[in-house]
Amino acid sequence: MRIFQRKSCKRVDCAKHENFSLPRYLFNFLFWTGCIERSDQKMRHRISAKVFNVLIFLVCVHRWASSTEGLAANLDLSATYLSSMTLGVVVWYATIFRRKDLTALLDKARVLQVPSKEKVINALLLINYIMLFLISIMFVSVLKDASAKKFAYGHDIKNIWEKILIISMDCSLTYIAYPLVSNIVAFLYCMLCLRCSSGINILTEKIKQCRPEDFGLSKQFSILKSKAVIYDILLNIQDVFSFPIFLMILSNVFMCNSIIKWHLYTQSESFFWNFQAVFSPSMLL
Does 53 have pLDDT greater than 90? Predict the structure, then answer.
């Protein structure tokens, strides 16, 4: 059993070295959005990162601006939901702010062996991406015959295709701002913790299987060295993710609070809130 992956010059290992042993679709998202840095970063990567991060901010502003009517009608409920979304966006910016530390952390953590349980996280990541398209389709199918005023700042759009385009773009961008980006941070955090946990378990099993007569100074030194590497990675994880995860917990608490308020104090059969109640990450709390 190995705690660390051996470095090799093979093409497969070099590819893992280049993307910090992360799943390709997770690495590409983090790299193109500027969450991690790499030596071969080109101008198009920098531009895409800036555009994405500005877009996330504008989507958040758009949600507040387009919800003025809802704020006036139900201040407590609307403000709680919008605060949840805003905190989710701040989670992303807090992670972006520490991108140099995050890149250094991933560089250290790539020596850890990838556990088999990580396939579950990979599957959840894929589902998270697929939901981006499913949500747009669901909202368009439900709201295409309704008024699009709340999506277009009070302007009534008559053309059905324009209405579908606006609703789908609004829903897609809103989902990217919350909860997609905060989910990506959560998945990355869980993945790193899972690798450290797997490394500790392998190290513990290695000690159990070692015979007393073979447990000499060289063996002890090797185990202590491995333990020190894992401990250092854990400290880096705590340093990078402590604040974003705290904000994520607050965001999910606000979302859970807003969903409960909707169920307790309103009688409307809103598709939006039914959807939030089913798919919101706050239901994982």
Answer: yes
